[in-house]
């Protein structure tokens, strides 16, 4: 992907359109920031291009901070605090286990992915980010997509039974209420593409655990995203979540060599962030 070449030009363009604040620089006379960073989550189907898009954001706004999805934690689950003799053992690949035997492992996976996402959202933004005038912290997916996309879909396919779904939701609601003020998100960026395009990208990326995934699964996840972000019919259980603004970006097109398209997408994100107040 030839994204590196765009960033300096795009920065100039954004500076011209929105002034130095658009690039997160503090004006000499301006007031110090009064609140923490704007916190956004980038959401979307498997292989839609979230990591790729986040890299584009970081090229354009190097002062922003990104928290990646904790997939390596799921691929290598380690026991904590249990001393073992000999060299370090490699952990269990829970992602692989879940895809191979969803009835057996979906509950375990969802509890663990939720816990790891909660941990990610609880980590304070770095000091360096807080120095900027308009600091922005971007997460790849969230504790909300864990529940309202993946766990919900597994339940609807009966890979989580009624009791497992009830226990998961119990923990989810309880912990989110406990940590409410520390995990708040200001908005969502929903990367939208057809399931067919996602499948093409998924095959091209060829992650071993995803070898058996088929179009039907991506169609289900697409429908879950559309229900939440486009049709707004998903039942949400948190008031702040119901009010959170959503930016929908069409990423069907391959923008890797298309500077104008990259610019259009990044400008939309910048305007969205500005409008968050
Ligand atoms: N707009 C695009 N056009 C064409 N290919 C793309 C585009 N965006 C991403 N890709 C390619 O699609 C594949 C998946 O992209 P990426 O890893 O960014 O997806 P992701 O949404 O982060 O995946 P996951 O859901 O697993 O976290 C990669 O090979 C990437 O180079
Ligand atoms: N079941 C399930 N629940 C989740 O919360 C979840 N989040 C991500 N994933 C899968 C999608 C990609 O294969 C891979 C990387 O995104 O992990 C999930 N699977």
Automatic annotation (TrEMBL):
Residue ranges occupied by any Deoxynucleoside kinase domain in the UniProt entry: 40-274
Sites where the protein binds substrate: 69, 99, 110, 141, 146, 210
Binding, ATP: 44-52, 201-205, 253-255
Keywords of the record: ATP-binding, Kinase, Nucleotide-binding, Transferase
One Pfam family hit: dNK
SUPFAM superfamilies, per database record: P-loop containing nucleoside triphosphate hydrolases
Catalytic residue list: 140 (proton acceptor)
Catalytic activity: 2'-deoxyadenosine + ATP = dAMP + ADP + H(+); 2'-deoxyguanosine + ATP = dGMP + ADP + H(+)
Family: Belongs to the DCK/DGK family.
Quaternary structure and partners: Homodimer.
Protein name: Deoxyguanosine kinase, mitochondrial isoform X5
Taxonomic lineage of the native organism: Eukaryota, Metazoa, Chordata, Craniata, Vertebrata
């Amino acid at each position: 992907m030839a994204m590196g070449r765009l960033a300096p030009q795009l920065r100039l363009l954004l500076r011209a359109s929105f002034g130095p604040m658009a690039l997160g620089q503090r004006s000499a006379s301006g007031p110090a920031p009064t609140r923490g960073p704007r916190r956004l989550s980038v959401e979307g189907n498997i292989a839609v291009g979230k990591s790729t898009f986040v890299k584009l954001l970081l090229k354009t706004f190097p002062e922003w901070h990104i928290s990646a999805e904790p997939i390596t934690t799921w691929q290598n689950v380690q026991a904590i605090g249990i001393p073992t003799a000999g060299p370090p053992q490699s952990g269990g690949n829970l992602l692989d286990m879940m895809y191979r035997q969803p009835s057996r492992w979906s509950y375990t996976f969802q509890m663990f992915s939720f816990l790891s996402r909660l941990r990610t959202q609880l980590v304070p933004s770095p000091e360096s980010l807080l120095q900027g005038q308009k600091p922005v912290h971007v997460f790849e997916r969230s504790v909300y997509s864990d529940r309202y996309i993946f766990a919900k879909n597994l339940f609807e396919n009966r890979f989580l039974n009624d009791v497992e779904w009830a226990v998961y939701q119990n923990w989810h609601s309880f912990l989110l209420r406990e940590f409410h003020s520390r995990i708040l998100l200001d908005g969502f960026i929903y990367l939208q593409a057809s399931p067919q395009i996602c499948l093409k990208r998924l095959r091209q990326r060829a992650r071993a655990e995803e070898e058996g995934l088929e179009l039907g699964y991506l169609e289900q996840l697409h429908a879950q995203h559309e229900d939440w972000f486009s049709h707004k019919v998903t039942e949400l259980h948190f008031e702040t979540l119901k009010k959170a603004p959503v930016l929908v970006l069409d990423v069907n097109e391959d923008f890797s060599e298309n500077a104008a398209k990259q610019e259009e997408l990044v400008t939309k994100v910048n305007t969205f962030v500005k409008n968050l107040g």
